[in-house]
Amino acid sequence: MAGPRPPRPADGAAPPPLARRAFLRGAAGLAVAGAGVAAAACSGTPGAVSAPGAVAASARPTVSRRAGERPFPHRPAGTDMLPQFRHVVVLMMENHSFDNYFGMLGRGDGFTLGPGGTPTNANPGPAGTPVPVYRADSVCQNGVEISQDWTVSHGSWDHGHNDGFVVAKGSNDPMAYFTGEDLPFYYSLGRTFPLCDRWFCSTMAQTYPNRRFLIAGSAFGLVDDSYPQATTYRPGGFGTVFEMLDHYGITWRDYHTTLATGLLFPYLATSNAANFKLIGQFFTDAASGDLPGFSLVEPNYQTGSEENPQDIREGEAFAASVIDAVMRSPAWPRTVLVRLYDEHGGYYDHVPPVPAVPPDDILPDVPHDELDGDHYSWTGFRVPAVVVSPWARRNYVSHVVKDHTSILKLVETKWNLPALSNRDANATNLLDTLDLGARRPPFLDPPSLTAAPAVSTAEEDLCLALSPPDAGL
Question: Around Cβ 151, how many Cβ atoms within 10 Å?
Fold first, then answer.
């Protein structure tokens, strides 16, 4: 499929803990069996476009709003300010950077191409010799040596230089990328609907901190994938987007396969049991048009989330089935779906994280000498993100800075809800990707997209057998 992989330097990094996979196995049992308004809703200054190279620490974002404030303070909370759509669907996959998937898309800010269309991006190896990006030699990520933990991520970042991906992990594997031949459906999706080339994950850390930002606006000190106990931190105020939606009578569901993101706050499993549904219910609800106001749709995290060592095609096929179900649904004319990734997975990206508003006063739970000047005050790395909706702008690439709390800001803007944290209070709200003033939604007739290739159970089993699942943490 691809040229030879550059030789791999010795990897002296200690293996990561297995806590996340332990949670995945344990939680499977815990998982319960008009135009003027739109223009006003776009309030807030779009983030500046980042360029490669170090970012000055003094370039801090302006804090203009605070947790608890509403986008429209003179209108009642719960007021529908954006009636053009009724349903927000979030499909968050796992562990890929923008460049790793879309560096060769030819749309948005991807790789710099040299003669013959070969990308010229590189990172120095241990001896300073450049290690160029290279096409991955397989869609099965078995044996891939990458890490997105706090220490490796901050070493990769190197205070804004983004030149530590190889050295921080002791491996050339972070420099791998995939192409449209590997991911035909995703490339078709990224060339059709609005592509966000400045969507950053919320923090330079692993899955659970970033998913906490997605549903609560903060990681509350979490920096890793530690197993959340039943007595885990319970945030004040509304706590999570789910509780806020409940309070204002807005429907929601977490459709899951093996693990529900909502269980990062385990008390929700009992207080909101009826809103956690197995994945089959999503396809039933989509077919009948009975989607709630807010949905999380979750893959099989053991085999189909696209995290290493998995075969990325299985996750792509799942995502394609979800997006196809939404586009065929009676609810399609009133839906906004966001397809994105929780974090970069350890893969290279050439655009550095940008300064971000700290969500609260809770510091990351790492020794002071490992904070690296980051008090949740920087985003993580870019991730692939596409906004899929009948209202999506045609021929549009968004260069507006976003992170996962932009989804919270969209929800808050639509229903005029109070911000959960200082981060989502100051986030941009995705409305630049939508043409809500159009007389007719631009994609009211769903476009035809390239089909995702099928992957057999035997191929997936072989991929996982070659590299035990716990190796992908």
Answer: 17
d(CA 369, CA 387): 39
Distance CA 97, CA 174 (A): 10
So what's the pLDDT on residue 468?
52
Phi then psi for residue 422, to 5 deg, are -65, -30
Helix then strand then coil, in percent of the chain rounded to 5, is: 30, 10, 55
Residue 233 pLDDT: 64
- In this prediction, residue 458 carries a pLDDT of 86
- Sign of the dihedral defined by the CA atoms of residues 284, 287, 290, 295, in that order: positive
Please compute Rg for the chain using Cα positions: 21
> Given this model, what pLDDT does residue 20 score?
53
Phi then psi for residue 277, to 5 deg, are -120, 145
Q: What is the pLDDT of residues 344-368, one digit of tens each?
A: 999 999 999 999 999 999 999 999 9
Residues of the chain with pLDDT under 50: 1-18, 21-58, 469-473
> pTM for this structure?
0.89
Q: How many other β-carbons are positioned within 10 Å of the β-carbon of residue 274?
A: 7
Distance, in Å, from the CA atom of 200 to the CA atom of 196, rounded to the nearest integer, reads 9
String of DSSP letters for 316-365: HHHHHHHHHHHHHSTTGGGEEEEEEESS-TT---SSPP-B----SSPPPS
What sign results for the dihedral spanned by CA atoms 255, 260, 264, 268?
positive
pLDDT by residue (tens digit) across 369-425? 999 999 999 999 999 999 999 999 999 999 999 999 999 999 999 999 999 999 999
Residue 73, both tokens:
């303070």
Tell me the C-alpha distance between 253 and 266, whole Å: 15
Residue 373: left (phi > 0), alpha (psi -120 to 50), or beta? left
- Which of 352, 409, 341, 295 is closest to 57 using CA atoms? 352
Tokens 């996982």 locate to 464
| Alpha helices for 121-240 (secondary structure H) | 150-157, 165-169, 184-192, 207-216
DSSP assigned state of 16: P
Query: Which residues, other chains included, contact 318 with Cβ-Cβ below 8 Å and sequence gap of 6+?
Result: 299, 300, 304
- DSSP conformation class of 203: S
- Residue identified by tokens 């990206």 is 349
Residues 6 or more apart whose CB falls under 8 angstroms from that of 41 comprise 71, 72, 81, 82, 413, 414, 429, 431
Quickly count: other Cβ atoms within 10 Å of residue 77's Cβ: 15
Write down the pLDDT at residue 327.
Answer: 98
